[in-house]
């Protein structure tokens, strides 16, 4: 029996992509209440990607052997360094965990739980909350604990946090098991938990002195951000589950963006760079609305054009993937010009995003032969 595709998942990913496109351009005037709050809301885009990635992983665990999943996400983890190495324009990118590499770790984490432990659904909720509890406990009891940057956020005051401090495993990985819980539980539970976290947020808002950086600073994920992240997660999954397989399934740009969200991640960065170059450098205009509009005007057509590029048979050979990884990880040691490195890693990221489905074909053949 063929399983009907849940297009609501694709639309939720598309929503996260649009938030990225709005949230990544610079905000010129942090004194502008509207601009700042729009930017603030977009900081929750990773919540949707990580939670949905947990859900899509459990679809894979029912169809693919564990070796396939392990190999696939290991390559995804290594190719994901294109983002951090380009963003930090050098080897500093190895010190931080970025969005794609964290997705690889998070998906592998829940795949191990799903395939090796097979817990009841409520256990995923307990695991999710416990992961944040570990981060919260280290902040209080052992603030000097090591492994800062990759496993835990850097131990710095919120106002001194680096702008691009990445997505440390603790606490960001909590969203992967949470996504599974939200997808499998009765949908009324999503609504109840949304209301619960909303009540907690209102209580925090009333009873504590508001430090704006605790809300806006997703990098360190203080308790305030954690509560809001849960609010958005439970509410979005409640709506997604209401729509379910009844979502509009005819081809459209939003559906395509959701289904090709990895490609959109790289293309939107290129589009924003071009848009900023036009508005800020060429036109000498630091207008926030113009920059946002130009971001859409450049990125969406660029995405449509690049998405038409066909998959290459070259990447049906595993050696091509090994070669790609060597180039991705080796470039920062060869290319010393930061801007050039950024563009080269972005191009490699686009190639990776266009071809990564070929990897599943290779691995399917490889491990089906081993089990035959």
Look at the structure and give the mean pLDDT.
Answer: 88
Spell the H/E element sequence: HHHHHHHHHHHHHHHHH
Uncertain runs with pLDDT below 50, 5 residues or more? Answer: none
Continuous helix count: 17
Radius of gyration: 21 Å
> Which structural category fits the helices and strands?
mainly alpha
Largest sheet: none
Distance between the termini: 24 Å
Number of strands: 0
Instruction: Report the principal-axis shape.
Output: globular
Overall helicity: over 70%
Strand content: under 5%
Structure notes:
There is one protein chain. Helix content is 72%, strand content 0%. It is built from 17 helices and no strands. The protein has helices at 7-23, 33-42, 45-61, 66-79, 81-87, 99-117, 121-141, 169-172, 175-184, 187-207, 212-216, 223-243, 253-259, 261-282, 288-307, 318-334, 338-371. The two termini are 24 Å apart. The mean pLDDT is 88.
List keywords for this structure.
72% helix; 372 residues; mainly alpha
Short description:
Helix content is 72%, strand content 0%.
